Amino acid sequence: MIVGTAGHIDHGKTALVRALTGVDCDRLKEEKVRGITIDLGFAYLPLDDGSILGFIDVPGHERFVHTMVAGASGIDFALLVVAADDGVMPQTLEHLAILDLLRIARGLIAITKADLATPARLAEVSAQIRAATAGTTLEGAEILPVASTTGQGIDALRDRLAAEARAAGERADDGRFRLAVDRVFTLAGIGVVVTGTVLSGVVRVKDQVMLSPSGLGARVRSLHAQNREVEQGRAGDRCALNLAGEGIAKDAIHRGDMVVDPFLHAPTERIDARLHLLPGETRPLGQWFPARLHHGAVEVGARIVLLEGEQLLPGGTADVQLVLSRPMAAAALDRFVLRDVSAQRTIGGGDLLDLRAPSRQRRTAEREAQRAALAIVDPQEAFAALLDAPPFVSDLSAFARDRALSAAKVDDMAAAISPVVFPVGEQRIAISQKHWQRFVAGVVECVQAFHAANPDLQGMGREKLRLASQPRLPAAAFALALQHADLAGRVVRDGAFVRLPGHSLQLSPEREASWRLIAPLLGGDARFCPPRVRDIAGTLKRPEHDIRQLMTFAARLGLVDEVAHDHFFVRATMHEMALIAAELAARAAEGRFTAAQFRDRLGIGRKVAIQILEFFDRQGVTLNHGTLRRIQARYLDLFGPVP
Q1: CATH number of residue 59's parent domain
Q2: What is the pLDDT of residues 51-103, one digit of tens each?
């Protein structure tokens, strides 16, 4: 169990930890000279059952409240310290507010310097404490008088802390690994060491980890948990990790960074959150209010965008968007604290909800429903609610990453919810069974309606069908959905079109005979630059109008595609050219190729090469960036053979 001190400056927090553990947490020279705690201090107390109590001693001076928040973010148990001579003071109240905002629900209150106070004074201070803690997470917490200099009450306090540690048990470690860095230093012969509290998961020697938000990869060479060398650290442990890897140096790592399972590395700088404004604030909070955001051990500038109303009244709670001045690592449902930009007071705090918040359309009913789902603590219930909120599809992998869920936990969730899942790259696009059935019925009805309105067309364009379908799936997931067993027998993918199985256009015997004459002219060595309508008409000595009508009908059948006016390519050639473009992209730097490279590969003129690429642009097969193009692999099958 990690115990964190809290309280006003000079109320004896460090002396109390020293009396409990024998360790002086003031390690800095300036701390010794000035007699106050400036940075976080750490101490450990072995217990009779072999477990260890860890202590984080925080500064009480108002100038160092940001450091106090960094320490409080990693504790299990609060030890609020109030001096008998001063009683409740300004930083007592601010520290108490921070503990409440961080929802540190377990704690004790120690009245220090009790040897210098009369029973009446102790009763008076106890009454002050009861009034101050009313309505907070420490309301009703036990109050123990102690004196660090004489030892009065120290044994009783130590015994109470040991009992709390035994009652608490161990934190669940079924999440993925995260550690909030609060110190970075180097040791001779060892290298770079970072310390912090493990927020979730397990870390082991030789594990590959990542520093976030920087993205530096590292290997855990050795580790200490609760001041002992061990092979693994787990959620709730106070750990020191010896890290090694390219770019790993003391200057490359900062307080506030996270050491994480590489799967979790996805920094954010725009977060939807639920914010509670402290009732002691003197004025409402308005749009784009500037503040300092504290999360874990990081402090970062933030602008607050209200998602409900135009102001948030003191004591009120509302959904907001936090627009950060720089990226940070976080997990959904992490707690945060806000302080004013002058660092003079704590103004509020709350829960992070959506780490991938949009910059536009923040206030829609759709976004409100999504935030309500994401606010649910139980991940299974939250994801089920998310799938039942517009747009009724969600990325299961992203949800698992942002909640730091283990692979086993995600598998259990998926088995319980039983959504239809489409793997698309690193994504797992999920849709609930209820909305999947609605999607299937909608696709079939849409294609039926299209055929009724357009009986002489081959089928409905795949992208047009996707945009008309609800729920609307991402393009790559939609392509996979059309191959699902529930749809495979009810609609047919026909290149870039989708049709019903019984719908087909047929060439008349006369047109069939003409097509047999034309098809050889479009293939063979001339396939990359086939003759145009007028050239075909001249070769066959047929009216140009008749050839154009036949080619247009052949395009409806999916036999050819009209790349440019009167310039038709057979479908197999289109597929071949798309694969050639993909091959060029795969070999090119950053996956981008030029029109000249495409032209040379096909052995054709520049004008025709540009026409082909512009056609691919319109179909979504390629994306044009000035003189360079890249492939959108999910559209490569538009001209492929019908499965």
Answers
A1: 3.40.50.300
A2: 788 888 776 444 545 566 666 667 788 899 999 988 998 888 888 988 888 88
pTM over 0.85: no
Secondary-structure breakdown of the chain: helix, strand, coil percentages, each rounded to the nearest 5? 35, 30, 35
Q: Which two tokens stand for residue 428?
A: 């797992």
Check residue 343 and report its DSSP letter: S
Is residue 359, in this structure, part of any structural domain at all? no
Tell me the sheet residues that pair with 475. none
- Give tens-digit pLDDT for 274-305: 999 999 899 999 999 999 999 988 889 999 99
Q: What is the DSSP string of 483-519?
A: TSHHHHTT-EEETTEEE-TT------HHHHHHHHHHH
Residue 404, domain CATH:
1.10.10
Domain of 20, in residue numbers: 2-168
CB contact at 8 A, 17 and 5? yes
How much is the pLDDT for 366? 95
* Residue 593 three-state SS: strand
CA distance 622 to 217: 33
- Same domain? 452 vs 568: no
Backbone angles phi, psi at 294, to 5 degrees: -115, 125
User: How many angstroms separate the CA atoms of 526 and 544, rounded?
Assistant: 20
Distance CA 214, CA 249 (A): 12
Confidence class for position 496, pLDDT limits 50, 70, 90: confident
